[in-house]
Here is the input.
Amino acid sequence: MQARAGLPFSGRDVRLDLFRGLANWAIFLDHIPHEALSWITIRNYGFSDAADLFVFISGYTAALVFARLMVERGYTPAALRLAKRALKLYAAHIVVVVTYIALVASVSREFHDPDDLNQFNVALFMSAPFREFIQALALIYKPVNLDVLPLYVLLLGTFAPALWLMVRNANLTLAGSVVVYLGARHFGWNLPAAPTGLWYFNPFAWQLLFFLGAWSALGGARALHPLVRTRAAFWLAIAYLVFALVVTIAICAPDFGGHFPHWLLEPFDPNDKTNLAPYRVVHFVALAVVVVRFTPADSPILKWRALAPLIKCGQSSLQVFCVGILLSFCAHAAIELSRDSLWVQFLVGGAGILLMTAVAYCWTSSRQRDPVLASPVRIGELA
Here is the structure.
């Protein structure tokens, strides 16, 4: 294969682990209704949120791990490895779905709270478990908050042909991704979801962030580096972030929003997350410009001991993510039982993050003891 795109370096970029860990913590907090700690997450201060970061890093990591494998060993070994990874993610999703349904149903029955069954889209499964389990296997039925992993499964499972094109011409492949994104937004392309809806994360739209991440890993970020480092790019990014902050606060706080004309806020309310509104993509790119400016790959900040738990959670992302999904409902149940007690909100939020971090450290420890799990390729795939 003749590779025209720049291959990623073979080392590990700790920033990926750091921000993936941060995304996992934020997704956990954002999934808990009435959680006071969720006010520290980025979704309250701009257009994009942790999901955008998660999908971008997923694409970046997929290219980082599998592009070199495809060039050095050929299409088939890389495609098989991608399929194996996608199947592992798929299996993890099904296990989480079954566990999540059992957890919601048990808590609802124990505390005589049938509202949870409807709120988390579990009542549909309870009414026809065999039919909905088949739907779950087909990624059509998903309980509430279990939408991110199916998106990742689909994108990774179909990535091999696109990666083959991307290592030959990354720019052209990204252009094709943009065309699909625009077509999805214009024509309403999406996939069905039970009972009568569509995927919450429209894969035809969200693939753009995934491919943008892969393109960045295959030389795109390096090509744009001189532009990103300019003062003009930096201050444009800052200006857009400030604009997004003001608009988001104005929408969330009607008293403050009353000082702004309706036409200014209307395009952003509601925030079109399902179809990945363009202003979300621009907001994410602006954040990336600022973060890269202050956090280069060799930044001493990455060696701070205070950031070690976040980095560790990013290194065991799949395990931490799955545990976080289950813990988010447990936290919701505890907050409801306490009648939205503020101290319980802080307690369950902090306890959940501690448990997720403990899972990451335990998984890393077991991986180091097992020579099969500790192989470099395996670690790269788990990233």
User: Anything to note?
Assistant: The CA atoms of residues 230 and 328 lie 41 Å apart. Strands lie at 192-193, 197-198. Residues 75-110 form the longest helix (36 residues). Residues 372-383 have pLDDT under 50 and may be disordered.
